[in-house]
Amino acid sequence: MRNRFLLLPLLSLVLGALWGCGAGGQDNGVKVPLPRQGLVRVVNVIPDSGDMTSFLSSTLFNVNRYGEASALVPELVGQYVMNILLTPPSNVNTVLVDNDPVNLTDQDEFSFFMIGPSASPQLVRVNNIDIAFDVDPSKPSLYPPPDFQILHGSTATAAADVYVTDALTDITAVAPTATVNFGDVTPLIQQNAAITYRLRVTPAGSKTVLFDSGAFNVVNLKRSVYLLLDNYGPSGVELRVANVTAVSATNFPNQTLASTLRASNMIPDAPVVDIYLGDTTGVPLFTNVAYGTTTAYIPVANGAGTINITPPGTPGTIIATGAFTVVGGQALSLYASGLDATNTTTFGAVTESQRSISGQAQFRFVSAAPSAVPIDVYVVTPGQSIADSAPILANAPLLASDTVNLTPGSYDIFITRAGTSVQLFGPERISVDAGNVYSAVLIDAPGGGSPLTIQFTQEVLP
Asked: Bridge partners of 152?
């Protein structure tokens, strides 16, 4: 009798953590066989792509943006085909994978990595035996050790040496774990859960570090793909590494890539503020930020801290405070809004896109007008009725944001009261060009309330 299980927290609400082959659950005392299932995942590593949509046979499987990985999804044992498309907003799709056979058994873990630029994409298919196959979930002492493999998907980097070592190891004194060229994937390599690891990447034959993960830990029964991909953060480094696990693609928590932060004062009854990263006994990170303005980016240290917002030169009076974490390699925008008079001031941060999408524009909207929320936000072609459109943001609370990809051209922005046709703002005509990134921020008039305005900005890409 075989038992297999998978630690997938994001899927536990649907299927739980136990997968079986011949094993069973209990239904009124009667053992019920569990279905036999294998695992499938799709990862988007195409640096100039918009949305990438995958279908397992005729069923929608996942929609990924660049750098995103689907979870390892359990699928019933059987014969399928995988189709993967680039799906721009114009609905003129580009076929990347056409009916690739997926003959799934209950031991299989199939991963589809799409790499390379959109003009010449490549499929790297990784077929493994599920690390949890034939494992008894009631015997954690027998769980297999963690393992990993390395996949090179960075178009900006030639051959690279990858070192996966004890965190204290001097890489100048050891050989690389692997040397990989674009498109290469290594065999699985075992790890030891008792060791604290560190991953570093250098050009092949060099000891100059391009990427440093910082220290990280692994646990038994966990598998990773260390994925080399193009970096579009503020560090100026061409490459980063994502940790692709059974759940998603994540950053290493202690990675050493540089980060930047800017701040926007959208608190209508706070004409000017100071913003601290840390307690208010130190020097403000940003001083005298006027209402409706956004600072320039400045470098910030990675890690957890606290944001405190005060009136200018008055560190003892805190308007808003809260925890804040800076992840290495990100360009962050901090938006503060709400009303000081009613103690509803708050803040939120978004990670800015610093890459260009081929043939499309990126458009991000931020709801920063406290008098208006909740709202529905529509972006429609000129002359199109919002009755014929779905909002890009629905029932959006204060500081909600979303990013959509648009076909180059002109659009009208409309804001309505959430769930109604009561128009609060618009139409506001905007124009967007391919490859550019734009932001639109809805704000109150100084002091609060109407008239609402939108700050529409073309962002500057590095």
From this structure: 228
Range of the domain at 368: 356-462
**Above 80 in pLDDT, residue 20?**
no
Look over the chain and give the mean of its residue pLDDT values, rounded to a whole number. Answer: 92
Domain tally for the chain?
3
Q: In terms of Cα–Cα distance, which of 359, 409, 357 is closest to 379? A: 409
Same domain, 246 and 312: no
Q: What residues pair up with 423 in beta bridges, in sequence order?
A: 416
Q: Locate tokens 């060229």: which residue? A: 181
Tell me the C-alpha distance between 428 and 431, whole Å. Answer: 10
pLDDT in tens, 138-159: 999 999 999 999 999 999 999 9
pTM: 0.88
Beta strand segments in 135-284, E? 147-152, 160-166, 178-180, 189-190, 197-203, 211-216, 223-230, 239-244, 249-250, 259-265, 272-277
Question: Please, is 323 exposed, middle or buried when counting C-beta atoms within 10 Å of its C-beta (0-12, 13-18, 19+)?
Answer: exposed
CA distance 60 to 452: 39
